[in-house]
Predict the structure of DUF4440 domain-containing protein.
Amino acid sequence: MSHQTPKPNELADEWAAAELGGDTASLKGIMADDFVAVGPRGFVLTKEQWISRHEAGNLKYGSFGLDEAEVRIYEDAAIMVCRQTAAGVYEDENGRYDIDESFRATLIFVKQDGSWRLAGLQLSPILGRP
């Protein structure tokens, strides 16, 4: 029996669970080596920078979830547009920041060596009606 790799929507759920738990080993396997995230204020993080927030212990989530998801698959690429909600705390040398946020998120998946990987993420604040 061959092992089935998760579909993009299943991989997104695995990513959300790994984010919630600060599971860096899972994140390293889920994310493509050239992963890039664009944050809600325009900053850019590489895979290493994204994961280091958990490794350093700076980021602790009490909740983290994805909903309102729509996935479009194009052969070896897929795009998911969803709502990401998160609550927790981020703390570094500049201070402590409470997290209670809701973003519109675009997750970009690519198929590499037969497995889906999270290659990109863009977060946009949800500020209200257009």
